[in-house]
Specification:
Elements (H helix, E strand, L loop, with lengths): L6 E2 L8 E3 L5 E7 L2 E4 L20 H6 L5 E2 L7 H5 L2 E2 L1 H4 L10 E2 L3 H14 L1
Antiparallel strand pairs: 1-7, 2-3, 3-4, 5-6
């Protein structure tokens, strides 16, 4: 399972918030040379509007080979605080999870972030 914030495709911070296809609003922050969302994703749709299935059964979840999401403890209210959990198939889907102009960060981008944070701490 993955829960993730997102990184802006370019490093221009043209605003302090971004909205996903569901209308959820996320605050942004510039850290070093990167712009990140402060909250984890909580969308229930891909960026093109297609729904992402909400799978609550753990046996079904582990056997999936298609995109899906769930909530912590299968409690919808937890998405407000923690965002949602997505499987790899939903993260890797060509319809994209992140809002337009954003993407789920790759390992290199996470390393850039953690390297910067280690230098400033």
């Amino acid at each position: 399972m993955l829960t993730s914030s997102c990184k802006k495709d370019d490093n221009n911070n043209n605003g302090s918030t971004v909205k996903d296809i569901d209308g959820n609003v996320y605050h942004t922050i510039v850290i070093g040379t990167q712009t990140w969302m402060l909250e984890n994703l909580k969308t229930t749709k891909y960026s093109n509007g297609d729904p992402i299935p909400n799978i609550t059964d753990s046996l079904t979840w582990v056997s999936l080979e298609t995109g899906a999401y769930c909530n912590y403890n299968n409690d919808e209210n937890n998405s407000v605080i923690y965002g949602r959990l997505y499987n790899w198939y939903s993260v890797n889907d060509s319809r994209k999870l992140a809002p337009v102009g954003w993407h789920v960060p790759n390992d290199s981008e996470w390393r850039t972030l953690t390297d910067f944070l280690q230098v400033v701490s």
